[in-house]
Amino acid sequence: MLNSCQKRLIYNLAYIPEHLPSYLCPFSDSEPCMDGGLLYYQAKEKISLMACPLPLNTKGPELYSHVNSLVRELKPAELGCISPVPLDVHGYKPVRTEYDLYYCLDLNNILSGPKLRNMLKRASSEVHISVGRDFTRDHLELLRKFIEFKGLDQEKALFFHRIPEYLSHSDTALVIEARTIRDNSLVAYDILETGSRLFAFYLFNITGKKSRDIPGVNDLLLQEAINQARKLDKKYINMGLGINPGIVSFKAKWGAYPFLAYYFQQFQPAFSWKRFFGLKG
């Protein structure tokens, strides 16, 4: 469990969405804990470690030492790590590694070229934007169609299925939606998490077939996300991972830039023949 001081620390210093228990716990059925500046989530014998220290400090030797000390203490049967650097964990072998970059949008340095302004103007003639916290049957139906259209595998689909549960746990999440002016049908929505002092987090962009026929609708949603973040005195929006060139291009045209490496590693205990025979080393 986290105490009040640890919760304040997370609020003041969080810079990736995985730092926020209200975001990650509903997706992982886990309990948040802290060891110094490292946040981790514990579920039975599984540990999900956010090896992105609070405050941000990516000095290799110090981070390696802290991670290995914590893992020696916890001895998880399964270990997952998110880190700005690849990790070597003593007594464990990596079985999966993913690499990407987090992108950041500085709210004092937003780009707005003529092409983008034209896209916003065009989209605003077809849809209107509203902000709330309700997650209705319309949102669920669009989410179902989005999962089907993307052809998500079972693991990723299950993650998206839990969005309603996450929203029920978070008091700081906003649902920013686009509906057609003609018949008020829902065509797309974003989920923006605002539970950090300096950062807002651009978590999900759920789109439907109609939104793909309305150029600029996602830009219009992001413009409102920027407005909401500014109203709440945020300095940055963590725009999430690059994922693919199309998503990177969308973020970059607003001025988002890569600000932190993302390594996701899964580990399993390594078999040690020395330990098997009771030998040291």
In short:
The protein has helices spanning 4-13, 21-28, 60-74, 114-124, 137-150, 154-161, 163-169, 209-212, 217-231, 245-252, 273-276, and strands at residues 31-35, 38-43, 46-50, 78-83, 92-106, 127-132, 173-180, 186-193, 199-207, 236-241, 257-269. By secondary structure, the protein is an alpha+beta fold.
Could you explain how this protein is built, in words?
- This protein is an alpha+beta fold.
- The chain is built from eleven helices and eleven strands.
- Strands 1-2-3-4-11-5-10-9-8-7-6 form an eleven-stranded mixed sheet, with helices on both faces.
- Strand 8 and strand 9 form a beta hairpin.
- Helix 2 crosses helix 7.
- The protein is globular and about 60 Å long.
- The two termini are 34 Å apart.
- The model has no long low-confidence stretch (mean pLDDT 93).
What keywords describe this structure?
single chain; 281 residues; alpha+beta; eleven-stranded mixed beta sheet; 11 helices; 11 strands; 37% helix
Given as residue ranges, the uncertain stretches (5+ residues, pLDDT < 50) are none
What proportion of the residues form beta strands (DSSP E)? 25-35%
Helix coverage percent: 25-40%
The number of helical elements comes to 11
Largest sheet: 11 strands, mixed
Strand order of the largest sheet: 1-2-3-4-11-5-10-9-8-7-6
Evaluate the radius of gyration: 20 Å
- The total count of strands amounts to 11
Shape: globular
The chain-level mean pLDDT equals 93
Taken in chain order, the helices and strands follow as HHEEEHEEHEHHHEEEHHEHEH
Structural class by secondary-structure content: alpha+beta
Distance between the termini: 34 Å
